[in-house]
Write a structure and sequence with these properties.
The chain is of the alpha+beta class. Helix content is 29%, strand content 33%. It has a five-stranded mixed β-sheet, covered by helices on one side. A two-stranded antiparallel sheet has the order 5-6. The two termini are 17 Å apart.
Length: 101
């Protein structure tokens, strides 16, 4: 889903693929479709955010042309009551990525 955030900028949010369907290129198709849609709608920048512990998601976004541009330190500590762990790493920080279209 594309969420307008600022003039000429949209954020890609809520990308998810069921566990049993992962590794089949579906996530990449979804992200590439979002990039294409954002271009068609006239956006100049597309952004995404994911947790520091979301190794597969970080790789996916970079494979699709996104670049890391900032870190929102302790985002998941401040905004979630329960601790989150992925890949044996505590999810603390939001990694922000973007791509010029």
């Amino acid at each position: 889903m594309l969420l307008p955030t600022r003039p000429e900028t949209a954020e890609l949010v809520n990308v998810a693929v069921a566990k049993e369907k992962r590794g089949k290129g579906i996530g990449k198709e979804l992200v590439m479709h979002a990039i294409k849609s954002a271009k068609e709608k006239g956006y100049k920048t597309i952004e995404a955010g994911t947790g520091n512990s979301s190794i597969d998601q970080l790789a996916l976004y970079q494979k699709c042309g996104f670049r890391m541009n900032s870190i929102d330190r302790d985002f998941f500590i401040k905004h979630y009551h329960e601790e989150i762990y992925e890949n044996g790493i505590q999810c603390r920080d939001m990694v922000r990525l973007s791509q010029d279209l």
